[in-house]
Write a structure and sequence with these properties.
This protein is mainly alpha-helical and 575 residues long. A hairpin with a 3-residue loop joins strand 2 and strand 3. Helix 1 runs parallel beside helix 4, helix 1 packs parallel to helix 7 and helix 14 runs antiparallel to helix 15. The chain has 16 helices and 4 strands. The radius of gyration is 26 Å and the shape is globular.
Length: 575
Amino acid sequence: MAAPDLQNPPNCTAVLSLSGHHDHESHDSQLPDSGGWITFPFIAGALTGLTLAAGGWGANLIVYLIEEFNVKRIDAAQISNIVSGSSSLFPIVGAIAADCFFGSFSVIALSSCVSLLGVVLLALTTLDFLRPEECGLASTLCKSPSKLQFSVLYSGIALAVIGQGGTRFTLATMGADQFHKPSHQAVFFDWYFFSFYASAVISNTVFVYVEDNVSWKLGFAITIAFNLIGLVIFLLGSRFYRHVKPQGSPFVDLARVFVAALRKRKVLISLDNEDYYCNHQHQGPVKTVTATAPTKSFRFLNPAALKTEGDTRFDGSIAKPWRLCTVEQVEDFKTLLRIFPLWSSSIFLGTPIGIQMSLTVLQALIMDRHLGPHFKIPAGSFLVISFISTAIAIPLIDRILFPSWKKLTRHSPTPIQRIGIGHILNALSMAVSAMVESRRRRVAHTRHLPAGSVTPMLGLWLFPQLVLVGVGEAFHFPGQVSLYYQEFPTSLRSTSTAMISLLIAIAFYLSTALIDLIRRTTTWLPEDLNDGRVDNVYWLMTGIGLINFFGFLVCAKMYKYKNANEGSINNGSDE
């Protein structure tokens, strides 16, 4: 593709980003330094090792805080939510660092080392002098941890969270960068999430069982080993990767658009295409699109690309970068504004999930978790049902449901449709959670159980709600990543795939705030859940989910893809 003519600014042929999608039809393996599917085992192996490590310390964190650090139940759930939110917030920092400064490879390698150091510190908290004296679950005279013990614990968690944040979605972006065709990228995202959830299943079962039934020391030692294995596998694939160079900070360009539009807010908008600045320099795969002028949407931003006296030099370059931007930069800013309502509508998609995750563990602790006379399911392992459901649902959706959908409708489902299905299943899961908890509470009250007693009701009753939320995640998580990767400007690729992580972070922080608000204003969440109304919490989440779903429908109806042909999800068979 010929480079734009930098000496002829009036020729308004802009190169508009299509998030890495372009019209080159050759296979990945035919591209120089192409990466392609040969890189997948290394990326999947690194993802598996690092996810196992993250699950090894994170999956059982609530139980570890309650049983080993004498933290109260609801407080432990709150800490877990904050940790989960932070684990999802730091991927944004990692994505920005990868996009703007260091590249994905360097960020992933460094972050893996940081997470390894964090897990080592957490392993040290299993030593007797770095944790408080043991305390029974029903005791009210437990000794609190010392400042040193809390310092080591929180330092380990912080480093592990930071390290995890730099790898989770940056790995997804780096993996997608190895592929040239949108159909291959879509398949990669599906298998990326399959590997992620399959690894989470193992860490939430095997690791948690070892920690509950063998020793915490061994559990954390295994976690350290897998973190190291993931790092080594990732480094071994370095010579096969397609390395995309960082393009500098795209956020500066976005800020320039806003400032330039503000400074030219009183300038009359021109209808002459020659009056707009369309020069562009770009790196990476792009698609050439003729743009005669900025689009009519968000017209208040168009003056940012309007040339006025003194804005350009004699050679056609920009003389005042905070007064003049390219048409593409203006359109990129508009893209973010268009997608923001859809993105924000997914915040309350994740908030009920965060509350359900923490409360499910607390419910499991006071339910009959036996499978047969000798085996007892660890409370921290109940969430694995959600991961198993997601891991099973993703390939079924990709290989059975979507091809059938396409045969019936002659169109592949769009990412937005996929997200919408996830909204419905998520709200249904909250309703089922409320009904199950109502039954558990009735059983506990019928038996007149003392405080802290186990309710004679099988913990298996918690499975249906977890299956529903897991299948819902199989729809909306890959759908959101695909949507953001497809629609965001190319310069924000890593940030685009991390946007789902930012959603999760906000959702977990919001779930923490909601739980705190509920505790302050109601009696639904006491220390003894048998005296509370957890079912009302779930009904509240159901209502929020339904209201949010209708808001999502409004946003989806108004949204238009940058390219109508890009809206569909292509299966691997779609060439």
